[in-house]
Amino acid sequence: MIEREVTVTNRAGLHTRPASMIVRTASRFRSEFFIQKDGYEINGKSIIGVMTLAAEQGATLILQLDGEDENEAAEALATLFEDGFGEVK
Amino acid sequence: MKVNQDQLDKVVHKGIPVSPGIAIGPAYLYAKVTFEVEKRAIDPEIVKTESARFEDAVSKAERDLNKIITVTREKLGENSASIFEAQLLMLRDQAVYPEVVSYIENNCINAGFAVQTVLSKHRRVMESSGNEYLRERANDLLDIQDRIIRHLRRGRILSAVDENSIVFSENITAADIILFSRRGILGCATDFGGPTSHVSIMARALHVPAIVSTHGVTDHVKTGDFVVLDGIKGEIIVNPSDAVLAHYRTKQERYLRLVQEDKSLVPLKAETLDGHRISLQANLELREELPQLIEYGAEGIGLYRTEMSLLLEGRALVTEEEQFSQYQEVVSKTAPWTTTFRILDLGGDKMLPMGHREQNPYLGWRGIRILLDKLELLVPQLRAMLRASAFGKVRILLPMVTSIHEVRRFKEILEQTKQNLTREGVGFATEIPVGVMVEVPSVALAAEQFAKETDFFSIGTNDLTQYVLAVDRGNDLVADLYDELHPAVLQLIKMTTDAAKAAGIPVSLCGELATNLRAVPVLIGLGIDTLSASPIYLPGIKRVIRAMKMSEGRELASKALIASDPREFRAELERWLDEHSCGVSFFLDSTPTE
Asked: Scanning B61, B280, B512, B528, which has the fewest C-beta atoms within 10 Å of its C-beta?
């Protein structure tokens, strides 16, 4: 299992579109995926879960991945956050 | 045709026409309420059949959403489509799909009840969130719950509307109307909504005759009632007599023929018989509507409502970059014609940026009043507009101005923004005309003063009428008093055009009055030189202009200014149209009279 800390950089936060991108990306991998925020944990392959985080710009999240492709998955997901989901920062 | 007016009045329901055309056929009452789902035990032997039924409903809901996404993306853009893409993911969400299946199979319970139980649980979590955006998104869960349950109920209640029916609903979404139009519906009417609401834009784009804001028509119509929906006049007639029906059948035929004939007008100029050139421009809300400029022959954009794409976005702030990318596309595609951007017009009946509530919103914090208080909204928008001006002609229009000080303050901010861009080495056009909306009587009354400090006027007749007559047309008790051809309204229009002429600045009119064909000769006679409306209305307006002389317009205008009996004067205008415009008034004056 690996953990990776990421920050929400896009101005609008994890609204519908970024949440969809996270779930779609995570679903390409076999690893289990959870996101932790302020001691709260949700299933990262669930759009309802990701939206419930209500993560705004500046929020810090921990991505937790467990499975054979955990490294590739962590890399792909962290890139989404770094790119601000292709939105304006 | 002779029909008793009293008889007719009993069965006519009025609303705001938002997409023209005549629909005649059976009504279908579409209930947008959550279904009550009963709890039913399922024989453990066949519980697998019940979860298979759930799978079947989910895959049908997926098919619906895929259609909706395709059409929404094409007509309203990627951002509007993203909401439905999220709904698509929710259907097979790991917190939903497997949970529903195990709820069905472990408890031996019907699928509908399981769907409702699981989704309500998630919805309650979202609704109790402190985050406003998340609370709104709880509606998405309700939407997919309805969608799945509708499909589960097939056989008992139709999941979609009847084909070839006229749909009546309290309120429907743009997504609903897309699915309806695929079922070949004839027309659509809703209790709520306005001309610029999502569903109205979509109805026009799909050519579905539509009426909104009917104040409870759904209480008076049942599925199967025979109805006439007049999307030109904004009237619905339930169970019409044979005579009324025959009248509308003829009107429908004439209208369809006229639409065909109007296509030949698209490449022609809007010019009166005695050679006065009038400019016809488009009111637009979304970049996806841009192809309509060419389709209907618009000479530029007379009013681009920038708040619309922001409201569709589902969040309050749109960044400078996002606005720039939109404005740049609009300006480039409109070139060589001019794009008139109205800066954010929030407040009144439109959402406020910070969920603020007021006692009297129409007299409150709206339009430029908000923007001058909240420069963090104004400045990024101005920067985006200025940057877009490097790609084609741009004008900026200020909403809800009441005093010249607001114009001066705005110009200071504009100047400062220009200087900052210059310092950053960012290009923009040197000439950017700034105009004011004439929608509050004080601006019309002081038009001479405003004409000295602004580059153009744009008259917004909807608000102007409401303010000068002190009538809220959304209020049934007084809506009859709302009259855009009231001599007082026309007098204010005349003061505006007179001041504009004296100062040598252009004056356009962008309210619904422009689409009222009987008003067109009067408005031209009053000195309006540009009419701006939803593109679909432009060919009809052009037909009237090409049939009139300026001298006739002036004569009708001078009569209009002193008309003491509005009904009689309307009849005169209709007679005039009949004599001059190849029977335009036949479909305009739809109500059969004694």
From this structure: B512
Q: Which distant-in-sequence residues (6+ apart) come within 8 Å of B568 by Cβ?
A: none
HSE on the CB side for B592, CA within 13 Å?
22
- Shortest CB distance from B86 goes to which of A19, A52, A87? A19
Nearest beta carbon to residue A43 from set B95, B317, B322: B95
Q: Which fold has domain A2-86?
A: Histidine-containing Protein; Chain: A; (3.30.1340)
Structure letter (DSSP) for residue B474 = T
Q: Nearest CA to CA, how far is B326 from chain A (Å)?
A: 14
Structure tokens at B377: 């909204």
Q: How far apart are CA B24 and CA B19, in angstroms?
A: 15
Q: Domain residues of chain A, as ranges?
A: 2-86
The shortest C-alpha distance from B492 to chain A (Å) reads 44
Q: Inspect the interface and report whether the beta carbons of A47 and B86 lie closer than 8 Å.
A: yes
Tens digit of pLDDT for each residue in B144-195? Answer: 998 898 888 763 444 456 778 999 988 777 777 777 777 788 999 988 877 7
Residues of chain B neighbouring A51 (CB-CB closer than 8 A): 86, 126, 134, 137
Spatial distance between the Cα atoms of B243 and B3, rounded to a whole number of angstroms: 7
Distance to chain A for B171, nearest Cα, Å: 23
Sheet holding B12-14: strands in order across?
B12-14, B235-238, B226-230, B22-29, B166-169, B187-190, B210-212, B16-19
Structural domains in chain B, sorted by start: 5-30+161-244 (3.50.30.10), 44-152 (1.10.274.10), 306-432 (3.20.20.60), 438-594 (3.20.20.60)
Q: How large is the ipTM?
A: 0.88
Active-site positions of A read: 15
| A43, A47, A87 member nearest B90 (Cβ) | A47
CA dihedral B388, B389, B393, B399 (to 10 degrees): 80
Mutate to test the interface with B, among A25, A42, A51, A57 (most CBs of B within 10 A): A51
Q: CB–CB of A54 and B90 under 8 A?
A: no
How is the beta sheet containing A60-66 ordered, strand by strand? Answer: A2-7, A60-66, A32-37, A40-43
